[in-house]
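My current task is to audit a protein record that another person submitted. My question to you is simply how this chain folds and whether the tokens agree. This is what I was given:
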Amino acid sequence: MFLSRFEFNAVRRGARELLASPQRLHAAVLAAFPADQSRANDQGRVLWRLDQQPHQTLLYLVSPHPPDLTHLVEAAGRPATQSWESRDYAPMLERLTTGQHWAFRLTANPVTTRRKDGTATRSQRFGHVTVAQQTEWLLSRAGKHGFGVVEGRSKEPDVAVRGRRTLRFDRRGRTVTLATALFEGTLEVTDPSLLRQALTHGIGPAKSYGCGLLTLARAS
């Protein structure tokens, strides 16, 4: 597995067009791989996430094969001065052990599955829209992904929703709506194998559209 990072040059038209469309950005990410390398396998799958700060927009990418992001550099980056970074993810994955604490970041699509009303015959996905609902969605799923959220100084779970967005775009003639949440906090490893699975296969739905990529950093 590989972890890659690319910085957009947000003043360029190509960057603005990609950042405005999850559908276009999804296609641009897949274009970084030959067709036979973009599919999920036992190692993992292609996952990506946008981290947008006031003066910097980064694309993080986890993939079974190293990406070729030349097309992004030329259309939406800084081709004269900057490329992209890729590194082997295996040493990080192998370093995980039970009891470790890590700072984490995750953009996810928190949803619930239910019938729309009493007359509906099929269940549908509905996005959680409040901070409380979205936080509970993450906390209720942490264990099966090999981690727990540690308690903060207030004895509450050390997790915060730092950003919430509603994405709308057309796909095959219909409008897709995704409610996303950016989670940040501190986790404790409870099952390294399950956590490796989460890091390489993602968490929750809408992985093709920038959701599901969990990343770790040293806890302060």
